[in-house]
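Title: Prediction job returns without error message
Component: structure pipeline
Severity: low
Priority: P3
Assignee: unassigned

Description:
Job completed but the reporter wants confirmation the result is attached to the right record. Sequence as submitted:
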Amino acid sequence: MSETAVDLDRRRFLTGTAVVIGGIGAATAAVPFIASFQPSARAKAIGAPVEADISIIEPSQQVTFKWRGKPVWVLRRTPEQVEALKASDGPVLGDPESQKSEQPEFAANPWRSSKPEFLVLVGVCTHLGCSPSFRPLPDADTGADWKGGYFCPCHGSKFDLAGRVFAGVPAPTNMTVPPYKYLSDTRILIGESDGGSA
């Protein structure tokens, strides 16, 4: 064999080795790049379900929790407030059966909640995202026939104590009921229901 003759076996070995080493290097370099597409621990914490202690809430009192950067209200309704939601002389509602509104399946009822006593709502108006104020009693903005609910001061939208929108106001749908589930009689988990998480 001459000194200039090509050693094919050696060439194949070197080519194969270079391909394997190059592939390992590319895969190693890709791992941190692909990992950078995963949500950060902070982002995961913001979207995670939130546990809320509802034992601290007095009748006709509302407490605010935070979930996904939004206020979530938990209202403990009195028996009279629950009964008022079924009254036929109540306000004319835009979506009384919650057909066009966002809520878990278990909240498709007149009180829009798992248990009539506790209402859980995302505290954002469905018109332009303002935060309505809780008005359990009549005042100058709501009128004498007001049975309690939520009034949005931005454009005058009104909602009853189940977050159902009044007809003829700017807000198009009822306020959103987030997924939640009871962990016990005194604690709920906002952001996750028995049907899954949001």
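Comment from assignee: result matches the submitted record. The mean pLDDT is 87.
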